[in-house]
Design brief:
By secondary structure, this protein is an alpha+beta fold. It is built from six helices and five strands; from the N terminus they run H-H-H-E-H-E-E-H-E-E-H. The protein has a five-stranded mixed sheet, sandwiched between helices. A hairpin with a 2-residue loop joins strand 2 and strand 3. The N terminus is likely disordered.
Length: 135
């Protein structure tokens, strides 16, 4: 991982690191991307079901991977202080209901080269609006 803050804040470099970490499922690489107080939850969050720090986010990822969930990154688009991440998710109840793969989007809010907030969406148009990128 780059130690240089300017490299960490470069949107293209960060987008590449996010894509690589998510596709590999490398929990150490994902942890390196997260700020200590990173939160993860539904679009309307924060809520009671949200992950409230980096350790909770990593525990959720580990649990999902152990249960068979996998994600293929379909896009990473940089917005103003955000990244829109498209995912094809398999191995979850929603994916099974959809015939094997569920399309999901996450809006990652970035500050100082680290992800500080993650919001999950089932609709790209809504996620793109939140991320400040073209629909």
């Amino acid at each position: 991982m780059p130690d240089d803050a300017s490299a960490a804040e470069d949107p293209a470099a960060l987008a590449g690191r996010v894509r690589s970490a998510l596709e590999s499922g490398d929990l150490d690489a994902i942890r390196d991307l997260l700020g200590h107080s990173a939160r993860w939850g539904a679009p309307e969050g924060p809520g009671d079901a949200d992950c409230r720090n980096r350790d909770q986010v990593i525990a959720w990822w580990a649990s999902a991977r152990a249960a068979g969930a996998r994600a293929v990154v379909t896009e990473v688009t940089a917005g103003p202080g955000t990244l829109l991440v498209g995912l094809d998710v398999s191995g979850t109840p929603a994916a099974r209901e959809a015939g094997g793969t569920a399309r999901r989007w996450q809006v990652l809010t970035v500050n100082g080269g680290h992800i500080i907030d993650i919001r999950g969406f089932g609709d790209r148009t809504e996620a793109a609006a939140r991320a400040g990128v073209p629909a």
